[in-house]
C-alpha cells in the first residue's frame, strides 16, 4: 500500500500504478528504490541499476519514478527529471527551451542522461541567479516550478497553433497545469 501511495504521487505513474506494480512486483520495486536512494554508489550507477532491474516496466515510467523518487527524497542533492523536462526519445521538454543548443542532454545510459539533466538544471539555476531570479534559484523546488511554467507556456503555444479551440479549452490554466506536472494537484498524501 505504501508503494501504491508513492506511485500515486508521481504524475506519470498515477494512472499506471497497477501496471507498474504488476510488471515490477512490490518486493523488487521496494528493494530497488531503497538501493536507488541509499546506496553509496555513484548516482549514474544507481540510476542505471534501477533502470536495468525494472526492465519489465515501460522505460519512460522507470525514469520518471527514479527522477521523482531521488528529487523528492533529497531535493538539495538530487534534481527532478521527468519527460516534460527532457524526453530523450522525442528530444522535447522544458530544458531544451532554456538551455543553449550546444547543451547535450542525451547520455549513453539513463544514469549518464540523469547526470546531464542535472548539469542543465544547474546551468539554468546559475543563469537565473546571474540575472537576478534568486528567489527561485535559492530554493529546493523553485527550479521545478520555473521549468513547469516554461513547459506550460510551450504547451499552450504549440496547442494553440495546431489544435482547435475546443481542444485548447481542455488544457487547464497555467497554475493548475504546473501543479499537475509537478504531481501536487489533488495530492492524496
Instruction: Please give the radius of gyration in angstroms.
Output: 17 Å
Assembly status: single chain
Biggest β-sheet description: none
How much helical structure, as a percent, in the residues? 55-70%
- Are there runs of 5+ residues with pLDDT below 50, and where? none
Total number of β-strand segments? 0
Mean pLDDT: 86
- What is the 3D form? globular
Strand content: under 5%
Structural class: mainly alpha
Count of discrete alpha- or pi-helical segments spanning 4 or more residues? 11
Our measurement of the CA-to-CA distance between the termini, rounded to an integer number of angstroms, reads 12 Å
Q: What is the H/E order?
A: HHHHHHHHHHH
Verbal overview:
This protein is mainly alpha-helical and 189 residues long. It has eleven helices and no strands. Helix 3 packs antiparallel against helix 4 and helix 9 packs across helix 11. The model has no long low-confidence stretch (mean pLDDT 86).
Amino acid at each position: 500500500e505504501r508503494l501504491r501511495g508513492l506511485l500515486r504521487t508521481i504524475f506519470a505513474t498515477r494512472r499506471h500504478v497497477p501496471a507498474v506494480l504488476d510488471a515490477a512486483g512490490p518486493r523488487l520495486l521496494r528493494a530497488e528504490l531503497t538501493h536507488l536512494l541509499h546506496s553509496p554508489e555513484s548516482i549514474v550507477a544507481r540510476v542505471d541499476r534501477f533502470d536495468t532491474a525494472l526492465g519489465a516496466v515501460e522505460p519512460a515510467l522507470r525514469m520518471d519514478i527514479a527522477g521523482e523518487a531521488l528529487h523528492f527524497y533529497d531535493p538539495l542533492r538530487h534534481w527532478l527529471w521527468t519527460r516534460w523536462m527532457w524526453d530523450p526519445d522525442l528530444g522535447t521538454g522544458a530544458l531544451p527551451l532554456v538551455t543553449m543548443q550546444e547543451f547535450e542532454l542525451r547520455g549513453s545510459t539513463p544514469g549518464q542522461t540523469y547526470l546531464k539533466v542535472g548539469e542543465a538544471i544547474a546551468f539554468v539555476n546559475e543563469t537565473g541567479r546571474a540575472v537576478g531570479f534568486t528567489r527561485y534559484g535559492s530554493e529546493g523546488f523553485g527550479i521545478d516550478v520555473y521549468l513547469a511554467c516554461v513547459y506550460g507556456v510551450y504547451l499552450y503555444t504549440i496547442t494553440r497553433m495546431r489544435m482547435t479551440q475546443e481542444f485548447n479549452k481542455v488544457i487547464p490554466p497555467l497554475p493548475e497545469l504546473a501543479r499537475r506536472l509537478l504531481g501536487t494537484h489533488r495530492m492524496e498524501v
